[in-house]
Structures are given as structure tokens and as C-alpha cells.
Inverse folding.
């Protein structure tokens, strides 16, 4: 069966396999195959593969020894994986338990199964979870070579944004000064620091900041990250004119913090502004808000208008990469 594969020389295979595994990109249902000195590693999302790797279509056999949840259940099911935890979104209790049992009977490396018990809520953007199997809601997630310890019941984290975070991280250069206004457990600032940037991560969630500090230690970048638990509007004056790069990943309400972003921005600063808007005009409201906040102090140029994902019917989660030049 022809599937998208990363093709590398055999001697580079283990290093590449680890890189793809860290990004959770290996298609476990297919066998990794060797042919004529090349290693073919099946991948789940060819668009998310790092640019330095070659993606080809190649015929590889299905892995006969792997039993999937769909095999156990006899039908396809929808779920997300985060570390060794599987996340469900099922309203019916009996159905959720049925899916959890199928997942546990499969060959997935799973320690816990959780079901969403509420929508994202509150200032810290957390949700309630029902633990269907396992001991709790804490897990270790690996993404593009970085490791993140987190508790889903205490912090906000979306595995769906891994590709987007990697896209932004690849733009970062050593010795940059990067400021994440809503840093969470560090999914932006940790890879930024790995690339040599000096980073500040701010969040109002005390538990998120504790995990950020732990994740900085786990990834060996403690000396390049300053973690601050506070409202970023109170912190911004202390970093006036400091940043070469700012991340504003707070869709729905990031516009309320643009004045602080302008305060933090240096003479030449890239702003990654995330928004959720109607599909008829997904970028306009954010761009207008940025230009208004910048006023006459900066020349504003939009470098990228990007749809990150569909958020809801007729609503899009988008990103504007904007350069502010004083």
C-alpha cells in the first residue's frame, strides 16, 4: 500500500525515527521498511514533517501485530492522543466507557483515558475531565524534540497546534529576545530557547508557570527562560521595548492585550497574533486591531495570513505574523 513516508539513508534512520516519534508523526499501523540502502518511515501528516526531511510515497506493508481501537470496536472512533493519555469527547456515558475499553484492549501505549466533562472555561482556559481509566490527568507530551510535563485538569494545552508551534519556532534565531504573553507550560518558549533565544513567558495560571519552570529544566534551557506568574498587562512596563518576537496565543480576546504588546515590542519586532473569526473575514478584525494599537509609533506590515484550523462551523482559528518597525 502506497503511503507517505520519510525517506532517509539507512545510517540516519534511528536519529530520524526518534525525531519523528518526538513529533508524534509516525504512522504506527504501517511497518518501517528498508530497501536499497534507504529507510522508509510511514508518517501520519506529511505536511507537518520538518522541511529538512524528504517525504515520498512508497509501498509499505501494514503492521499485522498492531491491534487498533477500531479493530477491537469493529468501527472507526474519534480520539486524540497526548503523551500516554487518550482524550475522548463523548456525551453519552455508556459510549465513552465502550470506547475506553476498546482503547485499553488495543495495542496503543496508553496509561489513561479521559473524557471531556466541560467546555474550556475561566481565565486559565482549563476544562473538567472524567477519568475513564488510569490514575489521573498528568502526562508527558513530546513534540519536535521537546518534552512537556503537564496536567490537563490544571493547564490549557492543545496537541492540535503542534505543527503551528513548530512553524513559528523555525523562524526563531539565536540571540533573539522572545516574549510569550500567555505562555502556559511552555510549548512556544521551550523550543524558542532550544534555538538559542532569550525568552520571557508570562501566564496568570500559577500551575502553568510551575510546569513551565519544570519543563525548562527537563529541556535544559533554564538559563534562557524567565517565567512570570502575573497578568501580562502588569508585566509589560518592565519589558518596554525589549522583544524581537511576541506570541499572542489567546484567541477570542488577544485584542484586549495589544496595548501591552506594543509596549513590549522593540524597534523591529515580529508579532504572532492568534484569533478566531468568522470565515467571511477571518483576518480583518485582527489586522485592524493591531494597526490601531500600533498607531503612529510603528509601521505595520502583515507577513503571513494563515488559517491554523477550523474552530467551529463558519469560524476559523487564524494567525497573523505581523512585523512592527518603529
Amino acid at each position: 500500500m502506497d503511503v507517505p513516508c520519510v525517506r532517509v539513508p539507512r545510517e540516519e534512520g534511528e536519529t530520524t525515527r526518534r525525531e519523528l516519534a518526538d513529533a508524534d508523526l509516525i504512522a504506527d499501523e504501517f511497518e518501517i521498511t528498508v530497501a536499497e540502502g534507504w529507510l522508509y518511515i510511514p508518517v501520519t501528516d506529511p505536511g507537518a514533517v520538518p522541511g529538512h526531511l524528504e517525504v515520498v510515497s512508497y509501498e509499505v506493508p501494514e503492521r499485522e501485530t498492531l491491534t487498533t481501537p477500531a479493530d477491537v470496536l469493529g468501527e472507526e472512533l474519534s480520539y486524540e492522543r497526548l503523551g500516554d493519555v487518550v482524550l475522548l469527547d463523548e456525551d453519552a456515558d455508556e459510549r465513552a466507557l465502550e470506547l475506553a475499553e476498546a482503547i485499553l484492549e488495543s495495542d496503543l501505549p496508553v496509561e489513561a483515558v479521559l473524557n471531556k466533562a466541560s467546555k474550556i472555561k475561566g481565565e486559565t482556559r482549563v476544562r473538567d475531565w472524567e477519568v475513564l481509566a488510569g490514575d489521573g490527568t498528568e502526562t508527558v507530551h513530546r513534540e519536535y524534540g521537546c518534552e512537556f510535563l503537564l496536567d490537563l485538569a490544571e493547564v490549557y494545552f492543545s496537541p492540535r497546534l503542534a505543527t503551528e508551534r513548530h512553524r513559528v519556532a523555525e523562524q526563531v534565531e539565536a540571540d533573539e529576545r522572545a516574549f510569550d504573553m500567555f505562555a502556559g507550560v511552555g510549548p512556544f518558549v521551550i523550543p524558542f530557547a532550544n534555538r538559542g533565544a532569550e525568552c520571557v513567558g508570562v501566564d496568570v495560571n500559577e500551575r502553568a508557570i510551575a510546569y513551565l519552570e519544570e519543563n525548562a529544566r527537563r529541556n535544559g534551557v533554564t538559563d534562557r527562560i524567565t517565567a512570570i506568574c502575573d497578568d501580562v498587562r502588569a508585566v509589560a512596563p518592565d519589558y518596554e521595548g525589549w522583544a524581537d518576537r511576541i506570541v499572542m496565543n489567546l484567541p477570542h480576546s488577544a485584542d484586549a492585550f495589544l496595548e501591552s504588546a506594543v509596549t513590549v515590542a522593540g524597534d523591529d519586532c515580529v508579532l504572532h497574533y492568534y484569533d478566531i473569526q468568522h470565515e467571511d473575514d477571518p483576518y480583518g478584525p485582527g489586522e485592524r486591531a493591531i494597526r490601531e494599537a500600533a498607531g503612529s509609533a510603528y509601521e505595520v506590515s502583515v507577513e503571513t495570513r494563515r488559517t491554523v484550523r477550523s474552530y467551529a462551523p463558519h469560524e476559523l482559528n487564524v494567525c497573523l505574523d505581523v512585523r512592527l518597525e518603529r
User: Anything to note?
Assistant: The longest helix spans residues 93-105. The CA atoms of residues 277 and 315 lie 5 Å apart. The longest strand covers residues 265-278.
